[in-house]
Amino acid sequence: MKKIEFWLHRFVFVYGLVMLITFFMCLLFNPTSELPVVRFFGRCILLTLVSMATLIVYASSEELTNRAWWFRTILHAAFLEAILLPLAHSWGFWYNALDGVIYGSFILAAKILWHLIDFGQSFYTATQLNEQIRQRKLEERNKEDAANG
Length: 149
Hints:
Oligomer: single chain
Number of helices: 4
Shape: elongated
């Protein structure tokens, strides 16, 4: 159940990023465009699902080294750009080369934002786990002292 909750949380976060990026791109470069709401939301859901599918590059049977993590992060950014840019272009989310560069920059900015938020959540979780470990060690020492003392 925790994994489902984890992936749902990530889906909602990525969906929000996709919605914001697309909204600002349309606002900046084609403010008169009229996107049908259902089609727009559906396409954003598909962009989100595709973005989530690219996370497969992080799959590993063992813990990633720092170097391996950075390599996969760069690879993931390249995958996102290579997959999302043509898809968004075919749907009319951007039109010319300048739009594409800006849309690609927004994708990269969203990835950086994702990692910053993910780092903050991981840091918070690690702090909680470290506190639980300290508590457990303290309880074990107290039991040993009581048994020896």
